[in-house]
Amino acid sequence: MLNSSIQVQGLQKSYKNLHVLKGVDFEVGKGSIFALLGSNGAGKTTIVKILTTLLRQDGGTAAVNGFDVAAKPDYVRQSISLTGQFAAVDEILTGRENLIMIAKLRHLKNPLQVTDDLLNRFGLTDAADRAVATYSGGMHRRLDIAMSLVGSPKIIFLDEPTTGLDPEGRIEVWKLIKELANNGATVFLTTQYLDEAEQLADRIAILHEGRIIANGTLADLKKLFPSTKVKYVEKQPSLEEIFLAIVGKKEEN
Amino acid sequence: METVKNHFFNDMGVMLGRSIRHIFRSMDTIITVTIMPIAIMLLFVYVLGGAIQTGTDSYLNYLLPGILLITIANGIGYVSYRMFMDKQRGIFERFHSMPIAHSAPLWGHVLTSLVSNAISVLVIILVALIMGFRSPAGVLSWLAVAGMLALFTLALTWIAIIPGLTAKTFDGASVIAYPIHLLPFISSAFVPTETMPSGVRAFAENQPVTLILESIRALLYGQPVGNDIWVALAWCFGIMLVAYIFAMRAYKKRV
Question: Stretch A103-130: mean pLDDT, rounded?
């Protein structure tokens, strides 16, 4: 299909006796944000690894940007970038050196210019020449996402991009992800936070016991439940709202 | 759609630049691969050397080839360490999801090992020259010495890559360094083998480090190298080939 960036059909994968994926099907539209939801160990990372050519599937097919991941991995790798819990940033190098390294590995003509632009855009210019080991969690993740934008790949895989971040860091990353999609990239996101999928995704798929058990827009998924009943409840602020309100006030002062 | 070009040498060069930065930013590595060998050289020449009978006029001239091999052996644990860290931290995962030559990260580590050992060896030879080391060897002999040292480095590097890729813990990855550190001590590096008890002597005279040492000594002092050099080369190539096969297999399977 011309309008889809990722097509997955009947995907299967086992590790020894553990049958992780038992026939997974889904499609991701061009330029959309797709969120794959599932609990720990549901197989989200396995799907990401197969789609990014790091792992071979046992059965089924997967195509990314129109290229079969098993038959044409080189073409797939040219179309994608991967960021997240297992694809690391070099801690010993500085932020700038990390970006230059990736730009050189993507064989860009002007690695220094690309690096300067990204440092600027991600608010890392001041920290650019410090070793990444000294970065805060939020800065680290910003650099990570900046690295995945080097060379403007068409499809961006973000594996649990906000795990381990504080609430402010999370909101910052959410903003970045929305910007990516606005610029035309397709974003494939895995998360275990429901609010994250709700905030960001155009389509949400739920992976459970090796299969996709629900797939659709947020409105579609809401329809799966009994129609809304009107209830009067006292609206209590969530701890997150309280935290952000207090921190916001502090910064104003 | 542009075709996928192979940029193997460019990619390997980027990997080399990265690992060399790691080395120059690690005080621990610099101390182990240059300061320690220099300290051992000073210790043996100025403290113990006076009591050691080697049958040569300068103990430093006798000692230097052994110090060079010890330098290389000392550095080899860091190959496993860097390999293990890249695998563990997920740097390999990022590289392999990118359009680069698949084996470039591995060869980057091999090249790093060669370059960093070459730097250490040069520094130590400079220090030895200041201490009074002299050799009548010509350019060709020096080139042959460089070749032997490079081959020794490569053989040890490929051995070190295997635990770096296969170990489950950091301790497991670095354990290979210990037997390798020990080998130069049970050789003719510090003292001639004649005074050793027969069992130890038989081991010392026939293990590859002694054969490589004796060949380098012969080359440096303009003596005939004899058959030792061929046996030494055969050892290096043999070890390298076997280790290479296992390392490549581990790389393809795990990375």
Answer: 93
CB-closest option in B1, B22, B100 to A92: B22
Nearest to A37 by CA among A211, A216, A204: A204
> Considering chain B, what is the average pLDDT of its residues?
88
Q: Which of A129, A54, A134, A137 is nearest to A98 (CA)?
A: A129
Residues of B in contact with A106 (CB under 8 A): 98-99
Tokens in use for B159?
């051995």
Report the candidate in A107, A136, A111 with the shortest Cα–Cα distance to residue A123: A136
Q: Can you tell me the mean pLDDT for B34-62?
A: 84
* Contact (CB<8Å) B98/A77: yes
Whether chain A has a CB inside 8 Å of the CB on B228: the answer is no
Interatomic CA distance for residues A63 and A71, integer angstroms: 9
Test A87 with B10 for CB contact under 8 angstroms.
Answer: no
CB contact under 8 A, A88 and B25: no
pLDDT for A69 equals 93
Q: Does A202 touch chain B (CB under 8 A)?
A: no
- Do B61 and B223 form a contact (C-beta atoms < 8 A)? no
Which tens digit of pLDDT belongs to each residue from B90-110?
888 899 999 998 889 999 999
pTM across the whole model: 0.85
In the predicted structure, residue B1 carries a pLDDT above the cut 50: no
Beta carbons of B25 and A91 less than 8 Å apart: no
